[in-house]
Design a protein that fits this description.
Layout: H1 2-22, H2 36-47, H3 59-62, H4 109-113, H5 115-118, H6 127-135, H7 138-148, H8 155-166, H9 175-180, H10 189-200, E1 217-219, H11 236-239, E2 247-249, H12 271-283, H13 289-299
Antiparallel strand pairs: 1-2
Helix pairs in contact: 2-8, 10-13, 12-13
């Protein structure tokens, strides 16, 4: 009997260690194993508004690299000033996500990159039109051939290049990363206390991994229902399973100080409000103002080095380039 209990205790300790390890937070590291030629081409495409019908909207419009990889709006503005259906998630560290979009409908960055181009509420173009634009520009023809070794441009090459560029958009060297790597003096007393509250309250159960999120889908409103007018219902749109209703991809907390407003509907305007709502609805925890302030102080230590590079100069259109139609 004693041997059985000892064996079970070993299992329990091992299981606990596995759970703690699975929920660990690792430092962000710079991107590796990149195709640099694809990165440079993808950088141009990311900033090129000619991939949109209007000639005005680019990937950077909603995922602005000067604003933490998002647009700081509740929901984004699409073609003809259409209101987007959901808050634009940050593109920063998005290569670490289990899937892309709040409902996970794109398996990876490459699958995601093609969606907005042909979405009538976003860039409102078509893949065929976008390719026609690129093939009308000699410099793009030459660069695509150099990068992919083909005589014809296709949407697969476009999305591959954009995805490869987006893989570079990681943000290492936050103060919290420095703390994780051993510099225990880099965080203040309140920031350290905020991290302890973050752990002990259960936040880390969902916000873990290098990106502190993006690794799972969770229900919004566990303890009580989340009150929202936003029609998005999360993962159920992909799986068709009622159990996935209101389950959304857990957002990364990296650079969260920069990526306001919060939640899929953008209704939480401040980190203070977001912490309060998540505490009550997800954890059955009513944080005091002092506790909330400490958690917010900790969250602000998650801002890493932002991507910096020379802004790409886009090749000029030609007489045969399809003309933009911003008002149609």
């Amino acid at each position: 009997m004693k041997k059985k209990l000892l064996f079970l205790s070993f299992i329990s300790v091992g299981l606990l260690g596995f759970i703690i390890g699975a929920l660990a937070i690792e430092p962000i590291v710079p991107a590796k194993e990149l195709n640099l030629a694809q990165v440079e081409l993808g950088k141009k495409l990311y900033f090129d508004p000619r991939l949109s019908k209007s000639g005005f909207i680019s990937c950077n419009s909603c995922h602005n690299l000067s604003l933490g990889g998002t647009d700081n709006l509740k929901t984004s503005i699409g073609h003809n000033w259409q209101q987007g259906p959901i808050n634009a998630p940050t593109v920063l560290n998005s290569s670490m996500n289990i899937a892309q979009f709040w409902d996970g409908r794109a398996a990876d960055l490459k699958a995601q990159a093609g969606g907005p181009i042909e979405n009538p509420g976003e860039m409102a173009s078509t893949h065929a039109l976008a390719i026609n634009v690129l093939e009308s520009i000699p410099q793009y023809i030459a660069e695509f051939k150099q990068v992919f070794g083909k005589n014809k441009i296709d949407i697969d090459q476009v999305t591959q290049a954009i995805a490869e560029f987006e893989k570079t958009l990681v943000t290492p060297n936050s103060r919290f990363d420095q703390w994780l790597l051993g510099d225990k003096d880099v965080l203040s007393v309140d920031e350290t206390a905020g991290y302890q509250l973050f752990q002990n309250s259960g936040c880390q159960a969902c916000h873990n991994g290098p990106a502190m999120g993006g690794t799972s889908f969770q229900k919004m409103g566990v303890v009580e229902a989340y009150d929202t007018k936003n029609p998005s219902e999360g993962l159920v749109a992909v799986t068709g399973k009622d159990t996935d209703r209101f389950r959304f991809k857990v957002p990364t907390l990296r650079n969260v100080e920069l990526t306001y407003p919060y939640f899929h509907d953008g209704e939480a305007e401040t980190l203070t409000e977001a912490v309060d709502v998540m505490g009550r609805l997800q954890l059955a925890r009513n944080f005091t103002p002092e506790e909330n302030a400490k958690i917010v102080a900790f969250l602000k230590t998650l801002t890493g080095d932002q991507p910096t590079f020379v802004l790409p100069i886009l090749p000029p259109s030609t007489d045969s380039t399809p003309k933009p139609k911003p008002f149609e």
